[in-house]
Structures are given as structure tokens and as C-alpha cells.
Amino acid sequence: MKRYYLCGPTVYNKPHIGNYRPIMTFDILIRAKRFLGEEIYFLHNITDIDDKIINKALEENKTEKEIAKYYEEYYLSLFKVLNIAMPTKLVRVTEHLNDMYEYIQKMLDNGSAYKIGTNVYFDVKKYENEYGKVSNQVLANLVKDSEDSKNKKYFADFALWKDTEVGVKYDSPFGKGRPGWHTECSCFINKYFKGETLDVHGGGIDLIFPHHENENIQHFAINKKPIANTWLHFGTINYNNEKMSKSLGNIINFDTYLEKYLPDSYRLLMLTVSYSKPISVTDTLLESINSQLKKFISLYNKVQLENIKQEIDLNIINEILNNVSNLDFAIAYKKILNLFKDKNKSSTFFKLLEILGFVFINNKISQEDKTLYLNWKKLVNDKKYDEADKIRNKLIEKGIL
């Protein structure tokens, strides 16, 4: 059984299309690997307490729990819309506080952490030969933040448990406070995979340092082994050559995206480029991807309407899924387009898209609409064009033609 982990969202706002790239890419990757016979346990987390959630709660005069619940539900609702398979296990910070206490205590007990007041810090200096192996950072080159360095032994030490002046606090063996962000993921990984090293750990490229670096050093301090064998860091999605950000006002959230484009167009977009490279989207690119998808759907409708049945070529499917499994998305995409053009391989093409999780494959044309289509073809054959046009318009309205 392979061990996979993906850093999940901090649920304080609606995700934009860049935020969803890691989970969509993981979904495509895992679907391919599972079809090829790999057994995968996929653990995914929800950060449901954080400064951002606290600030949002204060801003909206709500509790942190209300804010987290609302935005988590929105995040997970997109799983259904985009046909993302649920992880093997979904974990939340607030449901694992006792696990956090035990995890932090292990580091206090083995001397890799220390306590000052209510705060518990990881002692980075004790692992300076190990620290930096994920991000290639050198401790001596890090910029010291004098404000953040107060009351710590060393400026790079990070909080495992912290006392806070604002927002919700939890009772713990260390005093009232809440867990440090970097400890959450490593605690989950330690608990559910019993201290073993992950096969694959994923997250946005912006998490390499300090988040993933700090995850790794905690795991190493307790288990004497790295937290992951393979790291997948996903590139950003930029809009008109600028990183999406609230300050620039160039965010495309999913409410807006799904008003203009079909859900499957996002999945198709992910396949066009390497997972680690940034995707610079423009309206023209998104319209082009959506248009390509509509061509797939049009052919799929035709296959159903005319009851076209062909043998499925598993060799072709396995070849392309191996490309996907190896994260050679651009190569896989080129082969997908070539397969689409081969009218003798339509059944193979649509079986492949079904495996990769495309939603439109579930849209089956009813017998009533098939009859309507056959009536239209007969009227055209009989040169009764006025009557044929009326039926044709109905078929277009239904999205069949």
C-alpha cells in the first residue's frame, strides 16, 4: 500500500482556480495509478483553525467554527462538481488535538523541543545538519526576523504550540493556546502512517519553505527518517502573466469560472502542462480549452446516438496512463488529442477519459432523445427541411448537437 499525503486548505475563504491545482492533479495521478494496479492510501487535511480563520471570524462577527464549516463545505462541494474522488481519509485539526498534544510531547521528551511559558518551540539548531534538505535552504543564510525571534533560543525555531491573544484557545498540557501550523500535517502523517516515510507528499510550491521543511524536521526528530521519499510541488496558476492575488484583484474563483466554462475544462487544463510549471491562463486559453472539450462531448454524443461500438484497446490506455502516472502530462495530452482524431478508436478514447475522471462521460443520452435524433435524420433524408430544422433546434437546446 502506497502512502500519499496532500496539504489541504485553510478554510477561511472560497478557493480560486490556482488553489485547486494540487487536489485536481492528485486526483488525476491517483486515478491513473490505481487503474494500473497500485494500491494507495490517500490522506488529506483540512486546517480548520488558524490566524486567517480567526481574523475572518472577527470580521464577520462569527465563531471560528462557523467560518471553517462554511468554507470547508464549499471546498468539498467542488469535489462533486469537478468529480474529484474523496481521499481515503480526510482529517481536521480540531478533531485531533489530543494527537497534537502527544506528538508535541514526544519532541519535548526527546529534547528536540523546548517550552517557554505556554509556547513550545522546535529546537532547529539541534538538527542543523538535517534542516534544509527539503528546500535546500542554509540556516546561516536565512534572514533573521528580530520581532519573531523574541523569547526563542534561535531565530529559526518555530512554534509547535503557541499562546495567542486573539481568538479561540484550547486547553492543553502546555497551557491554553493552539497548535502551530507546521505541526498539523506532520502529526497527521505520523499518526495515520505510524511514523513511516510517505511515498508521495504534495502541496503548492509556496509550501516548500518553511512549511514542508518544518514538517520534515519534526518527523526526522521523532522517527529518524525523512517524512517523504517524493515531493510534488505544484506550480501556480497565473492570470494574464501575474500571480493571482486579492491585492491585484485578478482572482478567478470557481463561482465565476463555472459560469463561463464546463467543469471538465479545468481537468483538461491540468493535463496540458507539467504539474510543477506555472500555468499562465488568459481568457483566450480558457475558451480554447473549453472549446476542445465541447468537441469531445460532441463526438461522445454522436457515438451514443449512432450506437457506435468498437473494441477497447487496453494497450493504448495503459500507455497513456503510464505517462500520466509518471507525471508526463504534456506527453499524455498530446496522445489524448491524437487518439481523439482517430475515429476508429472512439470507444478507447472515451474509456480513457472515464478512467481519468471526466464528468461528461456520465451524461447518457436518453432513448427519447435518440429517437428524436433518428427522426431528425429521417426528415433530412426525406428533404423535409422545415420540420427537420425544428427538431434540430430542440437537439441543440438540449446540448446533443
Automatic annotation (TrEMBL):
- List the SUPFAM superfamilies: Anticodon-binding domain of a subclass of class I aminoacyl-tRNA synthetases, Nucleotidylyl transferase
Instruction: Note the superkingdom of the native organism.
Output: Bacteria
State the family named in the UniProt similarity comment for this chain: Belongs to the class-I aminoacyl-tRNA synthetase family.
Q: Please describe the quaternary structure of this protein.
A: Monomer.
Cofactor(s) needed for function:
Zn(2+)
Recite the UniProt keywords alphabetically.
Aminoacyl-tRNA synthetase, ATP-binding, Cytoplasm, Ligase, Metal-binding, Nucleotide-binding, Protein biosynthesis, Zinc
Q: Where is this motif: 'HIGH' region?
A: 9-19
GO biological process terms, alphabetically, are: cysteinyl-tRNA aminoacylation
Residues annotated as domain tRNA synthetases class I catalytic: 4-289
A single Pfam family, by name?
A: tRNA-synt_1e
What InterPro entries would the database entry show?
Cys-tRNA-ligase, Cys-tRNA/MSH_ligase, Rossmann-like_a/b/a_fold, tRNA-synt_1_cat_dom, tRNAsynth_Ia_anticodon-bd
**Cofactor stoichiometry and binding remark:** Binds 1 zinc ion per subunit.
Q: Which GO terms describe its cellular component?
A: cytosol
Gene Ontology terms, MF aspect: ATP binding; cysteine-tRNA ligase activity; zinc ion binding
Q: Record-annotated residues binding ATP?
A: 246
For this entry, the protein name equals: Cysteine--tRNA ligase
Q: What is its EC number?
A: 6.1.1.16
Q: Where in the cell is it found?
A: Cytoplasm
